[in-house]
C-alpha cells in the first residue's frame, strides 16, 4: 500500500471498496497488527499502534474476517474462544441477537454440542452469524468487518443484514463491503485501487457526484444482484 492517508472519526462507519487484490483486507490486517507497515503510522485515538499493548488493541477491535474459523470444539468454546468468564446466558443472548437461537434449539446437546472443524454442518451464512455472535460477546468499540462475498439464500442474507445493523450501532467501524445493503449503511467511502486511495469522501457526497467512481459503481450494479464485487467500474484504468 502506498500514500494511504485517511482519518475515521469515532462513531463513524467507513466502507472500504475496491476490486479484488486492491488492498482492502491488508488495510484491516495492518490495523489489527497482523503485520506492521514498513513506513508510515496508524493511530487509534491518537496513539500510534506500537505504543498500545497488542492484547489491549485486539481487545478493543472486533475483527470478522472473510473466512470464518470454526474450531472442532463445543458451540460454547467456539463462541467464547475459551473465555470462561462469559456465562451461558450471555452466549444465548448473543445468539438471539444474530437470530441463531432457533439453530441452537436444534442441537442435540445445546451449547455443549461439538461442531466440526471447518464448520461442517454449518452453512457459510450461519458461520458468519456465529462470527458476529463472537463480536457481540467481546463488545469492542471498533469493528473491522471483512464481509464474505459468498452468495447466501435470501433468508440468511436478511439475518446477516439485521446482525450487521445491530453490530455497527454505536461503534466505529471499517467495513469491507460486498453487499449493496451494507454499503448503504456506511457514512464514508474509501475506494482503493492497487494499494492506493482512488476516492475518499462521505457516501452522500460521492453518491451525488455523477463523475465519482463510487456513483458509477452503484449505477452499474445490476438491480437483481446484491453484490458490488468486481463491477466493471472497479476496474483499473489499465484494464
Ligand atoms: N502478507 C502479504 N505479503 C505480500 N503481499 C500480500 C500479503 N497479503 C496480501 N498480499 C497481496 O496484496 C494485495 C492486496 O491483497 P488484499 O488481500 O488486501 O486484497 P483485497 O482487496 O482484500 O482483495 P479481495 O477483495 O479479493 O479480498 C494482493 O495482491 C495480495 O496478493
Ligand atoms: Mg480481502
State the major sheet.
6 strands, mixed
State the CATH class: Alpha Beta
H/E element order: EHEEHEEHHHEHEHEHEEHH
What's the average pLDDT? 89
**Total domains:** 1
**Can you tell me the overall shape?**
globular
Percentage of residues in strands:
15-25%
Q: How much helix, percentage-wise, in residues?
A: 25-40%
CATH architecture: 3-Layer(aba) Sandwich
Please give the order of strands in the largest beta sheet: 4-7-8-1-9-10
Ligands (ions, cofactors included): adenosine-5'-triphosphate, magnesium ion
**Can you identify the CATH superfamily?**
P-loop containing nucleotide triphosphate hydrolases
Here the CATH topology equals Rossmann fold
Structural class: alpha/beta
Radius of gyration: 18 Å
List unreliable stretches of 5+ residues. Answer: none
The count of β-strands is 10
Termini Cα gap? 20 Å
